[in-house]
Design goal:
238 residues; alpha/beta; Rossmann fold; 7 strands
Length: 238
C-alpha cells in the first residue's frame, strides 16, 4: 500500500470516528433542528442585534434541561447572497451562538434547499450509527422577499417542504420579520407562517426552546407533541 493511500485511509477513519463517537457516549435519540436565518442587508441595525441576542437566549433556555440537553441538536445556517453553516449540529452544551452580520441579497429558496439537504445528511448519519431520531425541524426567519436567485428555485424549495410535511418527515416553521412578504412565505409550507411582533426575538427563541424541550422529553420519537401557543410573539396575518 502506498504511503499516500494509507494516509487517506487513516484520515477517513479519523473523520468517521469523530462523527460517531458522540453517539457511542450518548445513545439518546436525537431531535435535530436547523435554525435558518436571513442575514441580508435589510436585517441591518436593531433586527440583527435582536436576532443575535435571541440566539443567546436559546442556549440558556435549553442548557438547563437534563434530558433535552442530551437529545436536542441545534444547527444554525445563515443566508444572504450565499448559504452557509455557521454552527453545525451539536448538543446544546457544545452550542456556541454565533454573532451574525448582515449583507447581501435574499436567496431564500436556495437556503431552504440547502437546509433540507443538510438535514438529510444528518439523518443518514443517525441511520449509520443506529440512532433513533425525532421528526427534524426547519425554522426559517426572514424579513425580505426572495431576490437574486435562479428562476424556479423557490418553487422547488416549496415542493420539497410540502412533500416532507405530507410524509410527516419534517416540521417546518416560517417566521416573517417586519415588512416580510407573508404571502410569499406562505407558499413554502402547509402551516401558515407567523409574523413576528416587532423584534420579539427573545420570545420567539424562548418558544422554540420550550417546544424542543417538549419534543426532546417525549418517550416515543413518533409521538405528536402539543406545542404552546406562539401568539405572545407572533401572529397569523389575516
Amino acid at each position: 500500500m502506498s504511503e499516500l493511500k494509507f494516509v487517506l485511509i487513516f484520515v477517513t477513519m479519523c473523520a468517521s470516528l469523530s462523527e460517531t463517537a458522540p453517539f457511542l457516549n450518548n445513545p439518546e435519540p436525537r431531535c435535530p433542528c436547523v435554525v435558518l436565518l436571513d442575514v441580508s442587508t435589510s436585517m441591518s441595525g436593531l433586527p440583527i442585534e435582536a436576532l443575535n441576542a435571541g440566539l443567546e437566549g436559546l442556549k440558556s433556555a435549553l442548557v438547563g434541561d437534563s434530558i433535552a440537553s442530551k437529545r436536542v441538536e441545534i444547527c444554525v445556517m445563515a443566508f444572504d447572497s450565499s448559504v452557509r453553516v455557521v454552527h453545525d449540529f451539536s448538543l446544546i452544551d457544545e452550542f456556541e451562538p454565533p454573532t451574525l452580520r448582515p449583507g447581501g441579497a435574499t436567496f431564500t429558496g436556495t437556503a431552504v434547499c440547502a437546509a433540507l439537504e443538510h438535514i438529510e445528511r444528518r439523518k443518514r448519519l443517525y441511520k449509520e450509527v443506529g440512532n433513533r431520531y425525532f421528526q427534524p425541524w426547519l425554522f426559517l426567519v426572514t424579513d425580505g422577499v426572495p431576490s437574486g436567485e435562479g428562476i424556479g428555485i423557490y418553487s422547488k424549495a416549496a415542493s420539497m417542504v410540502h412533500e416532507l410535511e405530507q410524509a410527516k418527515k419534517l416540521c417546518f416553521f416560517g417566521v416573517g420579520v417586519q415588512n416580510a412578504d407573508m404571502a410569499k412565505l406562505a407558499e413554502l409550507s402547509q402551516r401558515p407562517p407567523l409574523h413576528l411582533k416587532g423584534l420579539a426575538f427573545a420570545e420567539l427563541f424562548q418558544w422554540l426552546s420550550s417546544s424542543l424541550q417538549s419534543i426532546g422529553n417525549s418517550k416515543d420519537t413518533n409521538m405528536q407533541v402539543p406545542l404552546a401557543s406562539p401568539l405572545n410573539w407572533g401572529e397569523v396575518d389575516s
